[in-house]
Amino acid sequence: MASDEVNQVKESSVPKNAFLFEVAWEVCNQVGGIYTVIRSKVPSVISKWGKDNYCLIGPYFADQAEAQFDPATDYSSPIGKAVLKLQERGFDIHYGQWIVSGRPNVVLFNPYSVYDMLHDIKHFLWSDYHISLPGGDELLDKVAAFGYQVKEFFKYICMSEFYCENIIAHFHEWMAGVPIPGIRKDNLNIKVVFTTHATLLGRYLAMNDPGFYEHLPFYNWEVEAQKFNVKPIAEIERASAHGSHIFTTVSEITAKECTYLLGRTPDLILPNGLNIVRFEALHQIQNQHVKIKEHIHDFVMGHFFQSYPFDLDNTLYFFTSGRYEFQNKGFDLTLEALARLNYKMQVAGIDTTVVMFFVTRQPFYTINPEVLQAKAQIEDVWRVCEEIKEQVGKRLYTNITSAEGHFEFPDLAKMVDDYLRLKLRRNIQSWKTKKLPKVITHTLKDDTNDEILNFLRTAHLVNNRHDKVKIVYHPDFITTSNPLFRMDYNTFVRGCHLGIFPSKYEPWGYTPLECLASGLPSITSEVAGFGDYVVNNIPGHDEKGMYIINRKNRDFNDIAEDLANMMFKFVQMNRRERISLRYKCEEASLHFDWSNLGKYYDEAYRQVVER
Q: Which DSSP letter does residue 324 get?
């Protein structure tokens, strides 16, 4: 579906006499980006369908459900009755509400409860649909068991006198797609929509072939899937795509992938959105940024200032994040561009400092003890300063109020006890060091072969005093329980100045969209789904903080130079210009609210009912 066709999709009303099920592996089970898609979309869906005509289906895992699932007490609804009937058959099924905005109804299936049937489940997947699942693969076993239960659930729904004639089942990604071939074989009266958010085979190919998009028409999917040992998943993806009445994906980029790797061109493009929380007053965006930036300052002071200081009022925070795929996520390009930016800033004599955060999960042993110690020591310094402030404040107040005659401002240094002076001096001496600040906050399990670290070592971008670009590589999630940052990821994003995501392969890409929703400009590429959508649908996107870099058929060094120049131009902006851009980002983010992008899903449901 071409981008101009995407623009022509109008608001669609909910089909009459219809019930919508959404099936996803990440319902009440946070694994990756689809969790954000489903969860953020819920309020918009409920506003159109109502709670009584909408239900989510996902897997039941006790550790996840404990925090996200609220069991039902009333099973009198048609869904509740279906759950009770399947429980009688021995299925471990849970019915209740997902504890997110909108509190949608959910049905969760415990895959382990039918593990005694796994052999038969796999046998029929092979004999009926030629999906070959190996033994001993934990994820595939869980997916197969979950899929069998979901199909049986829909089978019962169709056998019962369900109150809606048009039952729509929207399956997200291959982990949820296993029931689709069975639904079609049994000729169940279910209108099936399937969305692939990314093809797994495409992800592997992109990681290993620099000319991935140019070579797309020439791949033999079966040979390549066998080569990368992902054939069972590729078979599930193909069966789901071909078995659905309406096949969809999230971007034009991924649609081309589907055509050649799955053998079917998507009927519709369903762009991903967010539940945008808009501030009532624009100045609140800047106030939030300043407040959170102060917390990032706390980390930066503890991490860098024990070695050398720099002007925090003239410091910019850049970041990138996402799954650790060195080339697919553009980490290689980002690093090369940062090295060039460092040189350009030094030659131009720019006083600004850039602190670049790499936030990407990698196996580690623990937080680096020296990093933790520096954090603890600067907190000790802060506590002594607070003691001194309280002592001086009381004594100054007493001095001023008890003074007679002509008032002279007292010597504040004399108001501090020697004990506190000594304590402060000792704390500072134990905190200060001549070592360079660490480029990584954790002790990695495979430090020697880490591609980010190896680039930094080779480029000698190791947080020297003279470097204008400083690096903080954080190989873990940023959460409120994280002792280094003590904030969640979304809060951290709002405190930064620029997000950098020049992906080589990205079916959609939530990270630049999350930046936009936080009033933060970002850089992405036109071969990412989000970037491709912006280029084709958002005129004047640069002025709205959505910078797009061209990666198609270009030399790596030329792209790196363009990215470095984009960052260099941003560094040269003054504060007023950056604040103005932040407001424009927040305004532009409304385009991606589900209240707007939900119309593409509505169109898919309208078409599937017609078919």
A: -
Matching residue, tokens 């102060």: 294
Q: Is 193 helix (H, G, I), strand (E, B) or coil?
A: strand
Is the CB of residue 420 less than 8 Å from the CB of residue 387?
Answer: yes
The alpha carbon of residue 239 and the mean position of all alpha carbons in its chain are separated, in whole angstroms, by 28
- Give the pLDDT band (50/70/90) at residue 161: confident
Q: Which two tokens stand for residue 210?
A: 């620099």
The CATH homologous superfamily of the domain defined by 285-370+438-590? Glycogen Phosphorylase B; (3.40.50.2000)
Pairing of strands 364-367, 442-444: antiparallel
Query: Virtual CA dihedral for 36, 42, 48, 52, nearest 10 degrees?
Result: 150
Contact 496, 521 (CB under 8 A): no
Q: Which of 116, 127, 254, 235 is nearest to 195 (CA)?
A: 254
Spatial CA neighbour of 10 closest among 420, 601, 599: 599
CB proximity list for 376: less than 8 A, separation 6 or greater: none
* Pairwise CA distance, residues 526 & 583, whole Å: 24
**Contact (CB, 8 A) for 246 and 193:** yes
Domain ranges of the chain: 16-275+596-610, 285-370+438-590, 380-404+412-430
**% of the chain at pLDDT higher than 70:** 97
Burial 295-310 (b: 16+ CB within 10 A, else e): ebbbbbbbbbbbbeeb
Determine the Cα–Cα distance for residues 188 and 378; give it in Å rounded to an integer: 65
Q: Does domain 16-275+596-610 have CATH number 3.40.50.2000?
A: yes
DSSP, collapsed to helix, strand or coil, labels residue 138 as helix
For residue 148, what are the contacts with CB-CB under 8 A and spacing of at least 6? Answer: 114, 117, 121, 178, 179
Are the beta carbons of 431 and 374 closer than 8 angstroms? Answer: yes
Query: Which amino acid is residue 481, in one-letter code?
Result: S
Model confidence at 152: pLDDT above 90:
yes
Handedness of CA 564, 515, 324, 367 (dihedral sign): positive
Pairing label, strands 246-249, 166-172: unpaired
Return the residue matching tokens 């009440």.
28
380 Cα distance to chain centroid: 35
DSSP type of residue 436 = P
Q: Do 16-275+596-610 and 285-370+438-590 share a fold?
A: yes
Contacts of 596 (CB under 8 A, 6+ apart): 273, 590
Segment 477-496, tens digit of pLDDT: 899 988 999 999 999 999 99
Euclidean distance between CA atoms 364 and 367, whole angstroms: 8
12 has pLDDT over 70: no
pLDDT tens for each residue of 367-423: 999 999 999 999 999 999 999 999 999 998 888 888 777 778 888 888 989 999 999
| CA Rg value for the chain | 28
